[in-house]
Amino acid sequence: xxxxxxxxxxxxxxxxxxxxxxxxxxxxxxxxxxxxxxxxxxxxxxxxxxxxxxxxxxxxxxxxxxxxxxxxxxxxxxxxxxxxxxxxxxxxxxxxxxxxxxxxxxxxxxxxxxxxxxxxxxxxxxxxxxxxxxxxxxxxxxxxxxxxxxxxxxxxxxxxxxxxxxxxxxxxxxxxxxxxxxxxxxxxxxxxxxxxxxxxxxxxxxxxxxxxxxxxxxxxxxxxxxxxxxxxxxxxxxxxxxxxxxxxxxxxxxxxxxxxxxxxxxxxxxxxxxxxxxxxxxxxxxxxxxxxxxxxxxxxxxxxxxxxxxxxxxxxxxxxxxxxxxxxxxxxxxxxxxxxxxxxxxxxxxxxxxxxxxxxxxxxxxxxxxxxxxxxxxxxxxxxxxxxxxxxxxxxxxxxxxxxxxxxxxxxxxxxxxxxxxxxxxxxxxxxxxxxxxxxxxxxxx
Length: 446
Description:
Rossmann fold; globular; 446 residues; six-stranded mixed sheet; alpha/beta; Protein-Tyrosine Phosphatase, Chain A; 20 strands; UDP-N-acetylmuramoylalanine--D-glutamate ligase; 3 domains; UDP-N-acetylmuramoyl-L-alanine:D-glutamate ligase; nine-stranded mixed sheet
């Protein structure tokens, strides 16, 4: 039988992971990247003897594919993808490709905010319970690479809407949806409905024997559920209302109820404070209850879970001013949670590439908690217009070092300095991680 030919667009983590798995499964593989491929990835491709090209897409080669795996960062609208679709060649995501080659059970986590913390939270509990599990998707090694190289019983996958856009048969046993707020609308023709539908693809192949865990306080989620058929069993969680099945708060205790079994834990015992973290904990505890993990193990893991780098991460206290790195806040809603959790007067560093942000929701919090704003973006006009009248000082800066020095000047004893950009990172930084690291470096250099 002739080998099936797969073309992989994008030579990053997901692309190279897919190449490893495809090669192992006997595919003929060609990797094509419009940009440069990092040396560490080239070495892997050379080692597994896969053909690759960079800084170009050779159309003749690509259109010979029987199936194409597209990196999540490449929009559907680029010419080569349009040509593939017009030719009827399936264009799928790494998640779709890899899931066909594993018999492990899958927990898929998506949402505009909270998905990384919730994914790591669930993985942490599974590991504490000695369950043989892998974590992949947007975190850790690529899913395809792990499927090729390891054998586990469970995968916890953090899934972006872009990854879900490329699924056909992918079906998680447990789906978690943490939140839906306008984000990445530039990729969805500025349509919130299209973006929301893309998040809900996580449950499209689920059946009545699967489970769907979601935030019942989020109207963008509950409105969709009212209007659409949902096959899996629903386990909502809420800070506001008691749930028959699912998780809720009762006198500052998290309660998780499934099949008449109940798990309780005081929110004061969670390492991660703030309402949004209580919700992330509820989602993780619900998964743990479903897997019948011992209550003692769930409790212990929830008490010692440290959270995620670049998400409300306390860096240093200097002259009694706390510096906090929330570089992972790449949209307004994430920054809303950050500002909501601030207990001191705050100097706020904000800005980057605006993905169509509307800042209105932040106004009450800025009025209440923010004393000064430091802009760190290419075009700060929207930020200046939105908050110019609410704070004593608003300044524009050109680098992270400059922004941190300015914050140091503006902050007084007892204040906090918060990097929570509400935007994607731009040319000054490779990505939000790099932005967060530069912030921490600049703080340490004060």
